[in-house]
Inverse folding.
């Protein structure tokens, strides 16, 4: 089975990058395997070979976020001190947004994504654990609203044209300051 | 020309309400005139008679928001005092979100909506004026990030399951407190 593993991996990464671009531009519903093939200048069969369905592609596109949220929640759950736990959670969320600027907005904004994530990935459950940790026991309405605004705001900030010119380190610093202000 | 105006207006409102529901569930790309007719239990021709294209329907769905943002910006521009102006803007944004919980998320999240709004409505231009007023001259990165998080967070909060149980008056009060905290 002497498969060209490196090259196959490279093709897979290129397909996923093109898929994420098109999802962000047109939504998941508005993107076809054919469009992804056209964007890459390859035959549709090459895309189909790696990802037989669009759902499989959505799952692969979100895999890094699924892994990262799981690792973040595991780390936070091991911290007994509440202030330290919150700090790790806020930093982790901000890092995730800055590292995956486009993905966050696609995940949050597209109604076509949610059912696929529920059916085929652990992401919704992990985000729920993240939310539960941030809220703590018996959260007030003020706490709920602060988390909702922070979560929604972080998700969309990655693709906000208003922030397009900010370098990653400035974006990270200011998002973290904003997160701490909302969630102290 | 003895048209049944009242009834016609009623049908139009029902079509728009069904369209907004379906846009929120499936996105604009994922919604057809046929689905809207099915949801209402009417013939597709009845929908088509009022809205010959889906774009026309999107424009009509956002019309209340277009009007409201225009009125808010006009009011704010007439206020010389900066603190008073900011207060009017933040209150107005929060009111809009609470009154149109679903619409805000559809507008923000769906990649199918943006080009239609640009082509056929004044909404993007009015939102830009709103943003310019909020930012003021020469805004810092911190100010840009605060506005981005606030704008994105407000947009998505209307349909966040975390806040679904909050009555409108509590949601309004807490969103306003959050907005002032971020944007003082």
């Amino acid at each position: 089975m002497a498969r060209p593993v490196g090259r196959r991996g490279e093709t897979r990464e290129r397909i996923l990058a093109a898929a994420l671009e098109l999802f962000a531009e047109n939504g998941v519903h508005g993107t076809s395997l054919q469009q992804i093939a056209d964007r890459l200048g390859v035959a549709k069969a090459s895309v189909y070979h790696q990802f037989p369905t669009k759902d499989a592609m959505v799952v692969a596109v979100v895999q890094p976020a699924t892994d990262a949220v799981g690792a973040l929640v595991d780390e936070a759950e091991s911290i007994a001190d509440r202030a330290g736990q919150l700090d790790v959670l806020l930093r982790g969320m901000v890092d995730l947004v800055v590292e995956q600027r486009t993905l966050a907005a696609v995940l949050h904004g597209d109604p076509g994504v949610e059912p696929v994530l529920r059916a085929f990935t652990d992401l919704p459950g992990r985000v729920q654990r993240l939310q539960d940790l941030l809220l703590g026991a018996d959260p007030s309405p003020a706490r709920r609203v602060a988390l909702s605004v922070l979560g929604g705001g972080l998700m969309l900030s990655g693709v906000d044209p208003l922030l397009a010119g900010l370098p990653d380190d400035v974006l990270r610093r200011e998002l973290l300051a904003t997160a701490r202000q909302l969630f102290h």
Q: What stands out?
A: Confidence is low (pLDDT under 50) at residues 1-6 of chain A. Chain A is about 75% helix and 0% strand. The CA atoms of residues 117 and 138 of chain A lie 28 Å apart.
